[in-house]
């Protein structure tokens, strides 16, 4: 094997179908349900893969911690010919659920269109290898298939991330695909027809400043499911703890996992800044300009672990946490710094000895 040839162990972020390969195989072996055309397991096994359970003596870890009924509705949508749209605030696991649903149903979560302000219609439908196009004219070999076209041909699942960040004309390129289940290629005088099993899972962020409102015609072609933020402190702590452990293992961070006390403090701070109210509802607090999501809390703790491993003794300290909090909360310097200072002085400072070390470290960072 050459040094330039990639190996799976060296991949920074393994796709869900690789990361949970053994769980998927166990579920497929034990599956007794009816498997829809194009799927690799039954809807019941897909649900177990997402919410957790047992398969042949193997523990299936939960991938989504929340309302299982929402997951059932998402899976039921994909059994039909309807596309699925997952909507929610940042950090509500839209992309994570989309990836794991695709991995369980089709075994490939990599057919992705990433929505941005620069996404073009060609990335949704197809484009051309222009060197071959100039040399030979329009031929099947010169056609560059989009992830959606490839999913249609294979009867698989395509993912469209952050669809509402795309311009309206790009969004509307999906209307005929979702209605007719075909993509016309007039240059070749042919149509690409979707095989059974094809569907699209799209995600949309409700708090993105770059959102382009989806047309009513496009919305009608999706079943929409709103994913809520974690309902309570304990649920959010559990989500953060699980994802931090998985990411730390993937990066082989040589640091101890954050303590339950540290997890609870970070999640408490995030929930209070996000809601504009202390958990006991006795005091209002100002919210920073940025989005203080569960995903940000996971990133903060992972970075703090890396800091402790690289420049500390391997045990996360209040100083490591304070550095992460500063970076996560103070985005718009002047306004956010003031908001954070008020929170430190009016809320954290009054919480007694258990919070004293973190308060002091945060206060020093915010000077």
UniProtKB/TrEMBL annotation:
Residues 84-222 form the ATPase dynein-related AAA domain. Pfam families: AAA_5. One of its GO terms (molecular function) is ATP binding. Gene3D superfamilies: P-loop containing nucleotide triphosphate hydrolases. It comes from the Bacteria. This is AAA domain-containing protein.
């Amino acid at each position: 094997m050459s040094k330039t040839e990639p190996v799976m162990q060296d991949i920074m972020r393994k796709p869900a179908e690789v990361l949970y390969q053994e769980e998927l195989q166990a579920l497929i072996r034990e599956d007794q349900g009816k498997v829809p055309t194009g799927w690799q397991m039954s809807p019941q096994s897909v649900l177990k893969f997402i919410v957790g359970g047992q398969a042949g003596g193997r523990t299936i870890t939960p991938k989504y911690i929340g309302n299982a009924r929402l997951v059932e509705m998402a899976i039921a949508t994909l059994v039909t010919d309807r596309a699925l749209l997952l909507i929610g605030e940042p950090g509500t696991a839209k992309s994570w659920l989309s990836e794991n649903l695709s991995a369980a149903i089709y075994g490939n979560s990599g057919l992705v269109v990433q929505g941005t302000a620069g996404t073009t219609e060609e990335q949704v439908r197809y484009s051309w290898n222009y060197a071959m196009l100039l040399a030979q004219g329009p031929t099947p070999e010169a056609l560059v298939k989009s992830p959606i076209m490839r999913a249609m041909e294979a009867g698989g699942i395509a993912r469209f991330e952050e669809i509402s960040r795309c311009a309206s004309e790009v969004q509307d390129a999906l209307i005929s695909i979702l209605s007719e289940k075909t993509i016309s290629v007039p240059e070749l005088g042919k149509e690409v027809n979707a095989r059974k099993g094809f569907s699209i899972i799209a995600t949309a962020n409700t708090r993105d400043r770059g959102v382009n409102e989806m047309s009513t015609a496009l919305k009608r072609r999706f079943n929409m499911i709103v994913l809520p933020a974690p309902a309570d402190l304990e649920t959010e702590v559990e989500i953060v703890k699980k994802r931090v452990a998985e990411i730390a293992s993937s990066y082989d961070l040589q640091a101890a996992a954050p303590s339950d006390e540290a997890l609870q403090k970070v999640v408490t701070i995030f929930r209070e800044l996000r809601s504009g109210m202390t958990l006991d509802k006795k005091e209002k607090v100002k919210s920073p300009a940025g989005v203080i999501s569960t995903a940000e809390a996971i990133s903060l703790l992972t970075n703090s672990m890396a800091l402790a491993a690289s420049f500390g003794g391997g045990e996360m300290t209040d100083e490591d946490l304070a550095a992460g909090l500063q970076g996560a909360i103070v985005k718009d310097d002047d306004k956010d710094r003031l908001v954070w200072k008020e929170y430190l002085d009016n809320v954290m400072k009054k919480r007694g000895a258990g919070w004293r070390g973190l308060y002091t470290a945060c206060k020093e960072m915010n000077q």
